[in-house]
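request received
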Amino acid sequence: MEYRIVQDGENATVVFQGDITFSENVGFRQMLKNLPNKNMTQCVFDLAGVSMVDSAGLGMFLIAKEQADTVGWSLKVQGATGHVASMLKLTKLTEVLEG
Amino acid sequence: MSDISQAEAGITGRVAALDEEVRKAKILIVDDMDLTRKMIASSLAKGGFSNFQYAEDGDHALKVIAQDQPDLVILDLNMPKMSGYEVCKILRADPATQGLPILVQSASEAPEERVQVFASGATDFVSKPINKSELLARVSMHIENKFLIEDLSAFKSHIGDELLLARSMQKELLPQRAFLREIEVRGNLRIENYYRASFELGGDLWGCWRVGENRIGIYILDIVGHGVGAALNTFRIHATMARFQELRVDPALFMNQLNGELFETLPTGQFATMFYCVLDIDSGDITYAGAGAPRPLIIGVDHGVRMLDSDGVPIGIIKTPDYRNKTATLSKGETLMCYSDVLIETRDDVGEIMGQDGFAAHVSDISRRVERNILISNVLKEFFDVLKGDLPDDLTAVGFHRGSKDDTLLNPEVQSFLNQLHQNGDQ
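response:
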């Protein structure tokens, strides 16, 4: 997994590349720390470049959602295709993450 | 500052006071010159060592080692009867002395000789004439390393034993073969089941239980992650499920209840995907509910595959996921297959993920080629044939093959069990 944080005013986008799986746990948590938490109202996870997410990866999204609720920004997930889109549909998580 | 006073002040590059355990270490000094043996012992004594053994040649050294193995050997190379090289080779060939630190001393400065010394199995090298503080520093380092490695090996072996025990406990959570045979006999089913953790312990779990006289409940679940943390959660979920026996008849209700409990206890980011169904073994009617588990497959007699809709928020994430019951039918001659996500998420040799639809087509294809009651084994065989490296996640795969009208689907093993039951007067 690689990522790039793009900030545009009060909005930030995290552009992910590669797989988001169990082994990316540490990197993902570090990414959450690197977000401009206090200075944004919305964060978009752009998953267009992600080809695989496993259940641990979905777990990490939920941790991001918790951080969003705690700090006070909203999370949006976009661009998922293929297996990633199926996983989000199967687990009905888009609603949970964006709710 | 002389070598000796340096040694008295502490050992160059080492902690000032040697650990008591290291000071008690037994050191075998092998040299054909009495004076050299004494000089080495006296240097080491200055550093706090006192437990010495002596040998005058290679042959003698091997005898001493065989009788009472030291913690470290200081070995001369050129000795009568047997050279230091020989001694090294013999000690390294014996599993009992394979890890014994051997410090070779030699007068030669030639790089070729050093290469030869290490090639014969020496741990380290000191030049003659011996620099006392260097000798002391090297001896201390190798003894400390030896004790550290012994501690680590003991710790590893202890943890290994603990994991083995935990693993056997986890296996006991899975349905036992004798129980599955009963179900096979009662329902004219053939059950293929497979479970393997990617680490010693797994975060997958599946189970099967009777629901009244003619129905069975089948569940499969996958807890986020793998390894010890996920395994502890399998025990937690197993124990929680045991409290809802009266709800087993209703998959949605059962899972809503389980979610209610686990939502309170599982930390954020931990959850379980799950599928639970109740199968009527007489009619083949299935009632099921899903919480994001990979879609179970029903493989038809014509090899067509139907996917069960297991969409749902995984267990433990939100307070009211509102699982609903759905229905399906497992007709005679058909197979119900439940499996964990590793089968659809593992990359093949060109880096592609099979995905849900690809997997369903793949299973359908295999079902055309093999006997129905060994379908799961063949799916797994092909999976492992393609798998590169270690299993990336826990793997569970279970198949329930329903016998058709005329065949019994019973393999010889099950048939013999049935015969045994009859012999015992059971039905």
